User: Fold this.
Amino acid sequence: MKYILIIICLLGMFKNTYAQNVIKEDLLKYEQVYDYLKKDSTINNHSFSVSDTLVFMEKSLFWKFFQQKDETSLECLNRIDSIDQQERFTRIYSSELANRFSSDTGKSNLYFSKVSENILFAEYFYRFGMTPGGVNLSGKFNAGCRYLFVFDENNNIQDVLRQFIAYK
Assistant:
C-alpha cells in the first residue's frame, strides 16, 4: 500500500512538471488572440484547430518591431538571436489551453507561444497533403501566418503584426 501511495505521488509530480499552468491573466490574452484570429482567418477563408501545446517562436520575423534607435538591422538580428537562445524552450503541454479551446476539425493548426513581457506569438498553418488517416506527401509548399500580439497595461491588444511564411 505504501508503494502505491508513493507511485501516485510521483505521477502527480510528474504531471505538474511537464504541464504548463497558464495564469488567469494570460488565459484572457489567449482568448483575445483566439477571437482575433477567428475573425481574421474567416475573412481569409481559413479555419484552424488549436494546439494544446505552447511552442517557442523566434522573434526574427518581426525584427523591425524590436529594432532599437540607432541600431543597424544586423545588430538587431544578432541581439534578438541572443535573446531567443536564452529564452528557447521545448514544447510544453498546457491543460488550460486544452480545456479552453475545443479542437475544431480544420485545415490548419494554431499554435501559441508563452506570454512574455506582454507579447504573445501565434501561428497557424495550412496542412497540404494531410489526411485524417495519415500523411500523404505533397509537392506543395505549406503556408503559414505568424502573428505578434502586443498587449497594453490593461491586457488589451494594443498592436498586431502579421507575417506570412512558406514551409517546404
User: Anything to note?
Assistant: Strands lie at 49-54, 92-93, 108-112, 119-126, 130-131, 134-135, 142-151, 157-167.
